Amino acid sequence: MPVRPVIGGIGSPGALSEALAAAQYDADPELATAAYLALALGKPLLLEGSPGVGKTEAAKAIGSVLARRVIRLQCFEGIDAAAALYEWNYPRQMLAIRQAGEDYLNIYADEFLIARPMLEALRAPEAAMLLIDEVDRADHEFEAFLLEFLSDFQISIPETGTVRAPVAPVVVLTSNRTRDLHEALRRRCVYHWIDYPDPEREARIVMMRASAVARSTADAIVAAVGRLRAEPLAKPPGVAETVEWAEAATLLQRQGAPWPEAFRRAIGVALKDHDDMAFVAPRLDALIGGEAA
Ligand SMILES: Nc1ncnc2c1ncn2[C@@H]1O[C@H](COP(=O)(O)OP(=O)(O)OP(=O)(O)O)[C@@H](O)[C@H]1O
Ligand SMILES: [Mg+2]
Hints:
binds magnesium ion; 5-stranded parallel sheet; Rossmann fold; alpha/beta; ATPase_dyneun-rel_AAA; MoxR family ATPase; elongated; 46% helix; CbbQ/NirQ/NorQ/GpvN; two-stranded antiparallel ribbon; AAA+_ATPase
């Protein structure tokens, strides 16, 4: 497989990491390496991890670094080729047939084709990046179909012929691991498991993403979130929740709520499950800890 040394001018994992940081994404070295290798080898990147660890955002940041439009295919139960590839616009075809009368009409002209994300990405492989988000929500049948697509990057449209990408498009897949993906699909990709960031990185992310939050607040929130994640919660807070909790507590604090009261009152942006809330309520002071902010 030919190695493409220059992808968007990025020459190494370190350079990619710096470019991602400039795009407001703090990637750990392992993620930067996996993403760099996927790009250099022309393979899809498969990012797996718990909800809210930054999978979708990583893909978007990679797209931004490459100056490519991110075409997102959000997977769901029952997703099929019509939602992923293309559909014929029947109402428009019908209307055109009526208007054409006796005249010749090609009802399979491009104007009647509704391109869905996978076809769109094939048609613009140098300008776009395909994000196949939450692939674990799709069923096995769709996964098999995806595998075929990722093998040869071509789509056969029975009425018009085959659409083939001249070069392999950049593809990022994400999965929340609600089920195991097929071995064959994994094998085709460069794989990386995104973990929760360590406290230092998570505080940096808060400072990067939240507006006007003090570093001491970020540290206190990150420590509390770390303790919450160690509890048996149904929905442990993700990184987005950390960022929002820091912002919300800062807002309440600015309106006069003393610390850690502001922190405690803003818990609703960190925990969004009734049972989790009931479990945490009596332990909240201990979980929040005494850090001043
Ligand atoms: N490494 C990071 N650098 C900067 N921001 C991050 C990072 N990780 C997470 N975030 C922040 O966390 C938010 C949530 O991330 P994202 O939506 O990508 O998570 P996800 O893993 O796709 O979650 P889900 O499984 O719920 O779709 C992002 O909008 C971003 O603000
Ligand atoms: Mg996501």
